[in-house]
Design brief:
eight-stranded parallel sheet, alpha/beta, TIM Barrel
Length: about 325
């Protein structure tokens, strides 16, 4: 299967495993890479030296397949991590959470392929102007940090495709081959999938978190912290305190204090389902099994083929 995305990332299928915090370590990135899609190490929950360790392990375990790193630009360690990424010779970088102008030229000068994640067609144009090779446009359905404009994937993708000439990667609420086929029909060159890969054997999510994904309903997630950094989470006791504070009109200072430190680690990595922040997308309600990431890739590709065949027969 060939699209502009498979060509620039040297992968078999136009699927990117999202670089999720506390979930996407080198084991997950390597597992999906070996299945023929692009794996990403999520740097946003790591220290600089831990990122270096994960990059080196991925290089040793999977020298022949494509994988990369997702780097949130607003992260406090971003500058140090950018240096490590360059020093270690990483070939593919996905940036997010800020302006791609900050690092794109340096990464491109080093021979890297660069993509940036954004949430509106207007910002997709700015990414193109900044010189990225591809843009991920992520709809409101996505888990974790989200755009403030609340554009859904169905609305966002075709408008972004019309707005830029570079390849567009659709994200947000896509978890199987049917969603992939829909995204490709709207003009995307590929898809980025997070939630489905969070619930795999190679995911570094805590077993409590994985089990919570299996038990979640389609309406169990909500977007919180809209005035700070919007994030889609499973609503638990901690999230309810945030929602109540927001309803009272709490100040940013109060909200920051309620968030505290290491809240996502507590929920997603340590497995505290009551007091931790559990970031996940709306697709969580569709998850029924925890299986190897390679099997997930093969299922998505097979279902995509079935969906395309069904459409051709109508």
């Amino acid at each position: 299967m060939e699209t502009r995305i498979t060509k620039i990332f040297h992968i078999d299928y136009p699927i990117i495993q999202a670089g999720m915090i506390w979930v996407s370590g080198w084991k997950l990135a390597v597992a999906v890479a070996k299945a023929g899609v692009l794996g990403l190490i999520g740097a946003g929950s790591m220290t600089p030296e831990l990122l270096r360790e994960h990059v080196r392990k991925a290089k040793a375990a999977c020298p022949e397949r494509s994988w990369g790193v997702n780097l949130p630009i607003f992260f406090k360690f971003a500058d140090e991590m950018a240096e490590i990424i360059l020093e270690e010779g990483v070939k593919i970088i996905f940036t997010s959470g800020g302006s791609p102008k900050k690092y794109t030229r340096r990464f491109k000068d080093a021979g890297m392929t660069v993509a940036h994640v954004t949430a509106t067609p207007t910002l997709a144009v700015k990414c193109e102007e900044a010189g990225v090779d591809a843009v991920v446009v992520e709809g409101f359905e996505a888990g974790g940090h989200n755009g403030r404009d609340e554009l859904t994937t169905m609305v966002l993708v075709p408008q972004a495709v019309d707005a830029v000439k570079i390849p567009v990667i659709a994200a947000g609420g896509i978890y199987d081959g049917r969603g992939m086929a829909a995204a490709m029909a709207m003009g995307a060159d590929g898809v980025q999938i997070g939630t489905r890969f969070a619930a795999t054997l190679e995911s570094s999510a805590h077993e409590n978190f994985k089990q919570a994904m299996m038990e979640a309903s389609p309406t169990d997630t909500f977007l919180i912290l809209r005035r700070l950094i919007p994030a889609r989470v499973i609503v638990n006791e901690w999230a309810k305190t945030i929602l109540a504070a927001e309803a009272r009109g709490a100040s940013e200072e109060v909200l920051i204090n309620l968030i505290g430190e290491k809240r996502t680690q507590l929920g997603m990595f340590d497995g505290d389902l009551k007091h931790g922040e559990i970031q996940i997308g709306q697709a969580v309600g569709a998850l029924k099994t925890i299986k190897p990431a390679g099997d997930v890739v093969r299922e998505i590709v097979a279902q995509y083929a079935q969906s395309v065949k069904r459409l051709s027969e109508l």
